[in-house]
Amino acid sequence: MHNGVRKRSIRFRLTVWYAVILAAGLSLFSGLIWLSLRHRLMEEIDQDLAGRASRFERYFDSESTHAADDQLRDELEEFCQAFPPSSYVEVRGANGFAFHYPVNARAPEANVRTLRRQFTFHQEVFDLVIAAPVAEAQHTLDLLRLLLWSMIPVVIVIACLGGAWLSGRALKPVTDITAAALMISIENLAERLPVPATGDELARLTEVLNTMFDRLESAVKTLSQFVADASHELRTPLAVVRTTADLALRRARTPESYRDSLQEVAAEAERMTRLVEELLILARNDAAAEEMPLAAVDVREVLVDVCDEMRSLAEMRQIRVRTAYADRAAIVAGNRPALHRLFLVLLDNALKFSRPGGEVIVKMDSSDSRVSVTIEDFGVGISESDLPHIFERFYRADRARSGGGHGLGLSLAKSIARVHGASIEVHSTEGAGSRFQVNFVARDARPATAADTSKVPSTKI
Q1: Nearest CA to 459 among 290, 320, 280, 263?
Q2: Partners of 365 in the β-ladder
Q3: C-alpha distances in angstroms, 93 versus 53, 59, 60, 99, 100?
Q4: What is the rounded average pLDDT of the residues 11-34?
Q5: Structure pTM?
Q6: Distance CA 220, CA 216 (A)
Q7: Quick check: helix, strand or coil at residue 1?
Q8: How far apart are CA 88 and CA 376, in angstroms?
Q9: Which domains are seen in the chain, by residue range?
Q10: 44-99, pLDDT tens digit by residue?
């Protein structure tokens, strides 16, 4: 029961609708048959009355020329006896002539078909009325109506039983799919629904459901791996914090020793804070893209801000950042803080793995349909075995483990690009450097003002 209404099965509803439509169709069909037969019978009676009237007129013309009125009535009565029983004939002339058959009978008023016409004889107008009973035709129509209305319920009952059986057979694959789907849980997501070998809508639905289970299984595996990796990443700094605190508390130490311990604890706490922030950003990007409102953003302005922010770090590492921007506007539909973080990740990644005294090129190209941002370094590069995995969360190549990162930066960059409908292309040669290119769809609009967006903090990834 739901809101006071009992839910009915699809099989029950199909049978009811089938019965209703069949009853309406049979009723319409029966009514048309009855009306067609009635029209046909009445038309035959009218044709018969017309034939009688024509014969009566010819006989009246032939007999009235040499017979007096009384003799004419006798002749007409004898002629009318050849008509079917219960026939009625009446003739009235302008000079007072009158004839009825049967004699002294009144004109019938019910259950008859009547033909009225005039004819002229010797410039005298006569009114002719001929009527015939329709009792036999009415009896036939009544029998047909009784037969139709008595057979319709029988046909509907038989059809409902057959419809219920057919709908049960048609919906059996749905029942099987439902039973199989109920057996699939978080413990056995590898199971799949049996696909009916029918090639119909149910088969396509089953294939779609299996595809959904594939995505669900992949998402659960990714989530499990994500939780495991996050736990592993958090376990190390927590262990360092606990060990450092335990060692500092075992015995009295000098203020300098306590200060060193606290600095180590603070450094690990900062590392955990950055890790948690990155995890939260990834989770928000995955769960609710609508929380990242898009507006018209000038990519050039974002790149200028990012390069200014990272310039001191580049100088500290003795790396030169060279920029090359297109002259035309580079407007995209984006979220300015998110784009800031995207380019910050890529530029920080390029600086991190460049050699001292090297160079990083930040280039932007703009066309009517596309805006491309390229960040290229000439550092250690990425091996072919690592290249397919660099966007995976917590993945770090051997050369990157000394950089102090968590393997989340490029994953975060790809997540932001996906929300913006952009793509990231990577070309790298081990020992020669890497080139990351982000491709956006251009938008013909004015950039968002500073009041519309806010800049992100300068947290380096």
Answers
A1: 280
A2: 372
A3: 16, 16, 12, 9, 12
A4: 89
A5: 0.47
A6: 6
A7: coil
A8: 113
A9: 1-183 (3.30.450), 203-287 (1.10.287.130), 290-441 (3.30.565.10)
A10: 999 999 999 999 999 998 888 777 888 888 899 999 999 988 899 999 998 888 99
